[in-house]
Amino acid sequence: MGLPAGPDALAALAGRHGAPLLPRTHHFHRHHGSNIILCDDNTAAYRKASFANAITFSQRALVPGEIFCIEIEKTEPGWSGHLRLGLTQLNPDTGFPLPSYGLPDLVSLRGSWLVAVNKPPDVPAPAAAGAPRTGRPPAPAGHPAYLRTAFKTVPRAALRAPAGSGVLPTDVGSRLGVMYVPRAGGELADMHLIVNGDDQGAVEKEIPLRGAPLHAVVDVYGSTKLIRIVQLYGVQSLMSSCREVILQHLVGSRVSQLPLPPALKNFLAFKS
Question: CA separation (Å) from 209 to 14, 17, 121, 157, 221?
Fold first, then answer.
Protein backbone atom coordinates (compact mmCIF):
# COMPACT_ATOMS: atom_id res chain seq x y z
CA MET A 1 0.00 0.00 0.00
CA GLY A 2 3.03 2.23 0.14
CA LEU A 3 2.98 3.12 3.84
CA PRO A 4 5.26 6.09 4.56
CA ALA A 5 6.82 4.39 7.57
CA GLY A 6 8.24 0.89 8.00
CA PRO A 7 6.59 -1.80 10.13
CA ASP A 8 9.09 -1.24 12.96
CA ALA A 9 8.26 2.48 13.14
CA LEU A 10 4.54 1.78 13.06
CA ALA A 11 4.85 -0.88 15.74
CA ALA A 12 6.75 1.55 17.96
CA LEU A 13 4.01 4.14 17.44
CA ALA A 14 1.37 1.57 18.36
CA GLY A 15 3.29 0.80 21.54
CA ARG A 16 3.26 4.48 22.52
CA HIS A 17 -0.51 4.47 22.13
CA GLY A 18 -0.83 1.49 24.43
CA ALA A 19 -2.03 -0.71 21.56
CA PRO A 20 -1.26 -4.41 21.13
CA LEU A 21 1.55 -5.32 18.78
CA LEU A 22 -0.77 -7.69 16.95
CA PRO A 23 -4.34 -6.77 16.02
CA ARG A 24 -7.14 -8.91 17.44
CA THR A 25 -10.63 -9.69 16.22
CA HIS A 26 -13.15 -6.84 16.11
CA HIS A 27 -16.60 -6.34 17.64
CA PHE A 28 -19.03 -3.44 17.79
CA HIS A 29 -19.09 -1.39 21.00
CA ARG A 30 -22.01 -1.71 23.43
CA HIS A 31 -22.52 2.07 23.17
CA HIS A 32 -24.49 2.74 19.99
CA GLY A 33 -27.49 4.56 18.57
CA SER A 34 -30.96 3.76 19.90
CA ASN A 35 -32.09 2.23 16.59
CA ILE A 36 -29.22 -0.27 16.46
CA ILE A 37 -29.51 -3.91 17.47
CA LEU A 38 -26.26 -5.87 17.83
CA CYS A 39 -26.16 -9.62 17.27
CA ASP A 40 -23.79 -12.52 16.61
CA ASP A 41 -21.47 -11.67 19.49
CA ASN A 42 -21.65 -7.97 18.58
CA THR A 43 -20.19 -8.51 15.12
CA ALA A 44 -23.37 -7.52 13.24
CA ALA A 45 -25.33 -4.25 13.54
CA TYR A 46 -28.94 -3.90 12.36
CA ARG A 47 -30.90 -0.64 12.16
CA LYS A 48 -34.39 -1.57 13.31
CA ALA A 49 -36.28 1.62 12.44
CA SER A 50 -36.08 5.08 10.89
CA PHE A 51 -32.85 6.15 9.18
CA ALA A 52 -31.27 7.96 12.15
CA ASN A 53 -29.80 7.08 15.57
CA ALA A 54 -27.70 4.30 14.09
CA ILE A 55 -24.11 5.27 14.96
CA THR A 56 -21.84 2.36 15.94
CA PHE A 57 -18.20 2.13 17.03
CA SER A 58 -15.47 -0.47 17.07
CA GLN A 59 -15.19 -2.02 20.51
CA ARG A 60 -11.52 -1.13 20.72
CA ALA A 61 -9.27 1.50 19.21
CA LEU A 62 -7.40 0.74 16.00
CA VAL A 63 -3.66 0.51 15.73
CA PRO A 64 -1.74 2.28 12.93
CA GLY A 65 -2.21 0.57 9.59
CA GLU A 66 -4.97 -1.76 10.85
CA ILE A 67 -8.03 -2.07 8.61
CA PHE A 68 -11.51 -2.12 10.16
CA CYS A 69 -13.66 -3.80 7.51
CA ILE A 70 -17.41 -4.31 7.28
CA GLU A 71 -19.68 -5.99 4.74
CA ILE A 72 -23.16 -4.73 3.83
CA GLU A 73 -25.62 -7.59 4.36
CA LYS A 74 -28.99 -5.89 3.87
CA THR A 75 -30.26 -2.72 2.23
CA GLU A 76 -33.69 -1.11 1.95
CA PRO A 77 -34.40 0.23 -1.55
CA GLY A 78 -36.04 3.62 -1.85
CA TRP A 79 -34.24 5.23 1.07
CA SER A 80 -32.09 8.30 0.47
CA GLY A 81 -28.39 8.22 1.34
CA HIS A 82 -26.07 5.41 2.38
CA LEU A 83 -23.63 4.30 5.04
CA ARG A 84 -21.03 6.67 6.57
CA LEU A 85 -17.65 5.37 7.67
CA GLY A 86 -14.63 6.88 9.42
CA LEU A 87 -12.66 7.41 12.61
CA THR A 88 -13.26 9.17 15.91
CA GLN A 89 -11.27 10.20 18.97
CA LEU A 90 -14.48 10.31 21.02
CA ASN A 91 -14.30 7.43 23.49
CA PRO A 92 -17.45 5.22 23.42
CA ASP A 93 -16.44 3.80 26.82
CA THR A 94 -17.60 7.10 28.36
CA GLY A 95 -21.14 6.60 27.07
CA PHE A 96 -21.31 10.18 25.80
CA PRO A 97 -24.67 11.34 24.34
CA LEU A 98 -24.90 10.30 20.71
CA PRO A 99 -26.19 12.63 18.01
CA SER A 100 -28.73 11.40 15.48
CA TYR A 101 -26.35 11.34 12.52
CA GLY A 102 -22.69 10.79 11.78
CA LEU A 103 -22.75 13.58 9.17
CA PRO A 104 -22.78 16.39 10.04
CA ASP A 105 -23.68 15.92 13.72
CA LEU A 106 -20.88 13.67 15.02
CA VAL A 107 -18.25 15.49 12.97
CA SER A 108 -19.40 18.82 14.42
CA LEU A 109 -18.44 17.57 17.91
CA ARG A 110 -14.81 17.62 16.69
CA GLY A 111 -12.40 14.75 16.83
CA SER A 112 -14.33 12.72 14.24
CA TRP A 113 -13.73 12.19 10.52
CA LEU A 114 -16.37 10.48 8.39
CA VAL A 115 -17.00 10.00 4.68
CA ALA A 116 -20.30 9.32 2.95
CA VAL A 117 -20.20 6.16 0.85
CA ASN A 118 -22.11 6.86 -2.35
CA LYS A 119 -23.29 4.75 -5.26
CA PRO A 120 -20.66 5.13 -7.99
CA PRO A 121 -17.49 3.18 -7.13
CA ASP A 122 -15.32 6.30 -7.30
CA VAL A 123 -17.28 8.69 -5.10
CA PRO A 124 -16.47 8.15 -1.39
CA ALA A 125 -15.92 11.84 -0.56
CA PRO A 126 -14.37 13.66 2.39
CA ALA A 127 -17.00 15.13 4.72
CA ALA A 128 -15.57 18.63 4.33
CA ALA A 129 -15.69 18.52 0.54
CA GLY A 130 -19.45 19.04 0.31
CA ALA A 131 -19.65 17.25 -3.04
CA PRO A 132 -18.74 13.83 -4.38
CA ARG A 133 -15.39 13.30 -5.97
CA THR A 134 -15.29 12.53 -9.65
CA GLY A 135 -12.92 10.58 -11.78
CA ARG A 136 -11.82 6.97 -11.72
CA PRO A 137 -10.61 5.26 -8.55
CA PRO A 138 -6.85 4.82 -8.23
CA ALA A 139 -5.30 1.60 -9.40
CA PRO A 140 -4.59 -0.88 -6.59
CA ALA A 141 -1.21 -0.15 -5.01
CA GLY A 142 1.45 -2.79 -4.46
CA HIS A 143 0.94 -6.46 -5.27
CA PRO A 144 -2.36 -7.24 -7.02
CA ALA A 145 -3.06 -10.11 -4.60
CA TYR A 146 -2.63 -8.32 -1.28
CA LEU A 147 -2.43 -5.02 0.60
CA ARG A 148 0.38 -4.29 3.02
CA THR A 149 -0.56 -2.89 6.42
CA ALA A 150 1.51 -2.28 9.52
CA PHE A 151 0.92 -5.66 11.15
CA LYS A 152 -0.53 -7.92 8.49
CA THR A 153 -0.45 -8.36 4.75
CA VAL A 154 -4.14 -8.68 3.92
CA PRO A 155 -5.26 -10.68 0.86
CA ARG A 156 -7.29 -8.42 -1.42
CA ALA A 157 -9.78 -11.28 -1.75
CA ALA A 158 -10.70 -10.79 1.92
CA LEU A 159 -11.48 -7.12 1.22
CA ARG A 160 -13.52 -7.65 -1.93
CA ALA A 161 -17.20 -8.41 -2.34
CA PRO A 162 -17.73 -12.18 -2.34
CA ALA A 163 -19.91 -11.83 -5.46
CA GLY A 164 -16.92 -10.50 -7.41
CA SER A 165 -16.60 -7.43 -9.63
CA GLY A 166 -19.50 -5.18 -10.49
CA VAL A 167 -20.72 -4.74 -6.90
CA LEU A 168 -21.19 -1.06 -6.07
CA PRO A 169 -20.00 0.28 -2.70
CA THR A 170 -23.60 0.59 -1.47
CA ASP A 171 -24.77 -2.85 -2.65
CA VAL A 172 -25.33 -5.96 -0.57
CA GLY A 173 -22.01 -7.81 -0.39
CA SER A 174 -19.86 -4.69 -0.69
CA ARG A 175 -16.88 -4.62 1.69
CA LEU A 176 -15.67 -1.29 3.04
CA GLY A 177 -12.64 -0.69 5.22
CA VAL A 178 -11.09 2.25 7.05
CA MET A 179 -7.57 2.67 8.42
CA TYR A 180 -5.16 5.42 9.41
CA VAL A 181 -1.60 5.78 8.18
CA PRO A 182 0.79 7.89 10.29
CA ARG A 183 2.85 10.52 8.53
CA ALA A 184 6.58 10.92 9.06
CA GLY A 185 7.20 12.00 12.63
CA GLY A 186 4.17 10.18 14.00
CA GLU A 187 2.22 13.30 15.05
CA LEU A 188 -0.35 13.27 12.23
CA ALA A 189 -2.08 10.60 10.18
CA ASP A 190 -4.15 10.24 7.02
CA MET A 191 -7.39 8.27 6.88
CA HIS A 192 -7.69 5.80 4.02
CA LEU A 193 -10.87 4.22 2.71
CA ILE A 194 -10.71 0.71 1.21
CA VAL A 195 -13.56 -0.05 -1.21
CA ASN A 196 -13.83 -3.69 -2.27
CA GLY A 197 -10.08 -4.20 -2.10
CA ASP A 198 -9.02 -0.90 -3.65
CA ASP A 199 -7.41 1.86 -1.58
CA GLN A 200 -9.20 5.13 -2.38
CA GLY A 201 -6.30 7.13 -0.96
CA ALA A 202 -6.26 9.66 1.86
CA VAL A 203 -9.87 10.84 2.17
CA GLU A 204 -9.00 12.84 5.31
CA LYS A 205 -5.55 14.28 6.03
CA GLU A 206 -3.53 15.49 9.02
CA ILE A 207 -5.55 13.79 11.75
CA PRO A 208 -3.80 14.51 15.09
CA LEU A 209 -2.59 11.39 16.90
CA ARG A 210 -1.83 12.94 20.29
CA GLY A 211 -5.42 13.72 21.27
CA ALA A 212 -6.75 10.22 21.87
CA PRO A 213 -6.81 6.74 20.32
CA LEU A 214 -8.87 6.35 17.16
CA HIS A 215 -11.95 4.11 17.06
CA ALA A 216 -13.69 3.14 13.84
CA VAL A 217 -17.18 4.63 13.54
CA VAL A 218 -20.02 3.52 11.23
CA ASP A 219 -23.37 5.24 10.77
CA VAL A 220 -25.80 2.60 9.44
CA TYR A 221 -27.65 5.31 7.56
CA GLY A 222 -30.20 5.56 4.75
CA SER A 223 -30.55 2.52 2.53
CA THR A 224 -28.06 0.50 4.60
CA LYS A 225 -29.86 -1.74 7.11
CA LEU A 226 -27.47 -4.48 8.25
CA ILE A 227 -23.67 -4.60 8.35
CA ARG A 228 -21.27 -7.25 9.59
CA ILE A 229 -17.61 -7.02 10.59
CA VAL A 230 -15.19 -8.88 8.33
CA GLN A 231 -12.52 -10.38 10.59
CA LEU A 232 -9.16 -9.75 8.93
CA TYR A 233 -7.05 -10.48 12.00
CA GLY A 234 -6.76 -13.20 14.58
CA VAL A 235 -5.00 -16.51 15.19
CA GLN A 236 -3.15 -17.78 12.15
CA SER A 237 -1.30 -20.92 11.22
CA LEU A 238 2.48 -20.95 11.57
CA MET A 239 2.83 -20.94 7.77
CA SER A 240 0.62 -17.87 7.43
CA SER A 241 2.53 -16.08 10.19
CA CYS A 242 5.83 -16.80 8.43
CA ARG A 243 4.38 -15.46 5.18
CA GLU A 244 3.41 -12.23 6.93
CA VAL A 245 6.95 -11.72 8.25
CA ILE A 246 8.52 -12.38 4.83
CA LEU A 247 6.14 -10.09 2.97
CA GLN A 248 6.62 -7.24 5.45
CA HIS A 249 10.34 -7.26 4.64
CA LEU A 250 9.96 -7.29 0.86
CA VAL A 251 10.18 -4.08 -1.14
CA GLY A 252 7.52 -3.85 -3.83
CA SER A 253 6.33 -6.98 -5.59
CA ARG A 254 9.46 -9.14 -5.60
CA VAL A 255 8.17 -12.54 -4.59
CA SER A 256 9.10 -13.89 -8.02
CA GLN A 257 12.76 -12.92 -7.45
CA LEU A 258 13.19 -14.91 -4.25
CA PRO A 259 15.46 -17.98 -4.45
CA LEU A 260 12.63 -20.32 -3.46
CA PRO A 261 10.83 -23.30 -5.02
CA PRO A 262 7.78 -22.41 -7.15
CA ALA A 263 5.37 -23.85 -4.57
CA LEU A 264 6.66 -21.50 -1.87
CA LYS A 265 6.52 -18.51 -4.23
CA ASN A 266 2.90 -19.35 -5.02
CA PHE A 267 2.12 -19.54 -1.30
CA LEU A 268 3.73 -16.14 -0.68
CA ALA A 269 1.71 -14.67 -3.55
CA PHE A 270 -1.55 -16.12 -2.16
CA LYS A 271 -1.84 -18.48 -5.14
CA SER A 272 -2.11 -21.60 -3.01
Answer: 11, 9, 29, 30, 27
Q: What is the pTM of this model?
A: 0.75
pLDDT tens across the length of the chain (272 residues): 334 333 333 344 444 444 444 557 899 999 999 999 999 999 999 999 998 999 999 999 999 999 999 999 999 988 889 999 999 999 999 999 999 999 999 999 989 999 999 865 444 444 433 333 333 334 345 567 778 776 567 888 889 998 777 899 999 999 999 999 999 888 999 999 999 998 899 999 999 998 899 999 999 999 999 999 999 886 556 676 677 667 666 655 577 778 888 888 877 776 65
The rounded distance, in Å, linking the Cα atoms of 254 and 117 is 34
Same CATH fold assignment for domains 7-234 and 236-272: no
d(C-alpha 108, C-alpha 114), whole Å: 11
Per domain, the residue ranges of the chain are: 7-234, 236-272
Give the span between the Cα atoms of 31 and 100, in whole angstroms.
14
Domain 236-272 has CATH 1.10.750: yes
Spatial separation of the C-alpha atoms in residues 127 and 189, rounded to whole Å: 17
Backbone angles phi, psi at 191, to 5 degrees: -95, 125
Residue 162 one-letter amino acid = P
What are the angstrom distances between the C-alpha of 195 and each of 111, 203, 256?
A: 23, 12, 27
The CATH superfamily of 7-234 is SPRY domain (2.60.120.920)
